[in-house]
Specification:
Layout lengths: L2 E5 L3 H12 L3 E5 L5 H10 L1 E2 L4 E2 L4 E4 L4 H5 L5 E4 L6 H11 L6 E3 L4 E4 L2 E4 H11 L7 E5 L4 H5 L4 E6 L3 H11 L4 E6 L2 H19 L4 H21 L4 H4 L2 H11 L3 H10 L4 H7 L7 H16 L6 H11 L6
Parallel strand pairs: 1-2, 1-6, 2-5, 6-7, 7-10, 11-12
Antiparallel strand pairs: 3-4, 8-9, 10-11
Helix pairs in contact: 4-5, 8-9, 8-11, 8-12, 8-14, 8-15, 14-15
């Protein structure tokens, strides 16, 4: 039995607790500083309000103030399941309590900019931890199609863990794999994290049409551009063809929040209008990513190399009708 800390009490953090629990691990889910009321609600109902599922008996939910106390109990694995905007906060909070090189698994998907260069979230966390005194880090990134409700209901789910030291990814795989949670491993950390992030942009483009013929063409163009972009950032082409790329794109384009936003854009609404009137309380990961890296992409690439991605960037950043 291992001790696993999950940072983030949202849908994905809670869903990840199910395979951990089914492997008889002791699981502590610690909420962010914004989730105190949510934690109280979960502990009162013994259910997760968003997932509408009972909490496993060996999974306990705590407020953020308990983070140090839990880490001091010799944690074997930390899984980070905050939104992409929360990675900096999570890194700083962990830097206050880490005392040894505990393996970290980032379930969050995103891409950032640092010093005018693209930065995957694993490298961002590593940089912040080191800047705050944590000299040794061991961070694994997760990719692949994993909808929280499906995982919580124990449907067959296939993901990929990536670490330059693939043995670490294999060790985490052994900890959390079940008959329904299937983990592959790779050393292409950059490729997995890039695909996991940018597929959200392409999901909006694919979701913008109801016509299957058109959608099929958009899927092919999305894959072409994902390969081009991933290789330019030193990821591997074959990663785009795997779970982190095509498979995750399929799931996201078939009905996630990014695809839903794409539907409204395809109907002729601007992003601001759709966000305000249709999805005011939803986090649109693809749009957040566009605001984060869109301007740099337009400086680094032209319409010939990334026409679909740039069309989505123009629509969101300039609040224009999607072309």
């Amino acid at each position: 039995m291992a001790k696993i800390l999950i940072l983030g009490a949202g849908s994905m953090g809670t869903a990840f607790s199910f395979p951990c629990s089914d492997n008889n691990h002791q699981v502590s889910v610690v909420g962010t500083h914004l989730e105190n009321d949510f934690i109280d609600k979960i502990n009162s109902l013994k259910k997760h309000p968003t997932l509408d599922c009972d909490i496993p008996k060996n999974v306990n939910f705590y407020k953020n103030e308990k983070l140090k106390e839990i880490v001091d109990k010799k944690i074997d694995l930390i899984a980070v399941a905050v939104i992409s905007k929360g990675i900096e906060w999570a890194s700083i909070e962990l830097s206050k309590v880490l005392k040894n090189n505990i393996p970290i698994l980032i379930l969050t998907k995103g891409l950032s900019i640092n010093n005018n260069d693209y930065e995957i979230l694993a490298h961002k966390m590593e940089r912040i931890l080191k800047n705050n005194g944590i000299k040794e880090t061991n961070i694994t990134g997760a990719g692949g199609p994993c909808l929280a409700k499906g995982l919580a209901n124990k449907t067959h789910t296939y993901v990929v863990y990536a670490n330059k030291n693939v043995d670490t990814a294999k060790q985490i795989k052994k900890l959390v794999s079940t008959k329904y949670y299937h983990v592959s491993v790779t050393n292409d950390l950059i490729g997995v994290e890039i695909c996991a992030a940018i597929k959200n942009i392409f999901s909006m483009a694919i979701g913008s049409t109801k016509n299957l013929n058109t959608a099929a063409g958009l899927i092919q163009q999305s894959i072409n551009e994902m390969i081009f972009f991933t290789e330019k950032l030193n990821g591997k082409k074959e990663t785009v063809s795997g779970l982190a790329g095509i498979a995750d794109l399929y799931v996201s384009a078939d009905g996630g929040r990014n695809s839903k936003m794409g539907k409204y854009l395809g109907e002729g609404m601007t992003f601001k209008e759709a966000k305000k009137t249709k999805m005011p309380n939803d986090t649109i990961e693809g749009a957040d990513l566009v605001f984060e890296i869109g301007s740099k992409i337009k400086k680094d690439f032209d319409n010939k190399s990334l026409p679909l991605m740039i069309s989505v960037i123009d629509s969101i950043c300039n609040n224009k009708i999607l072309n």
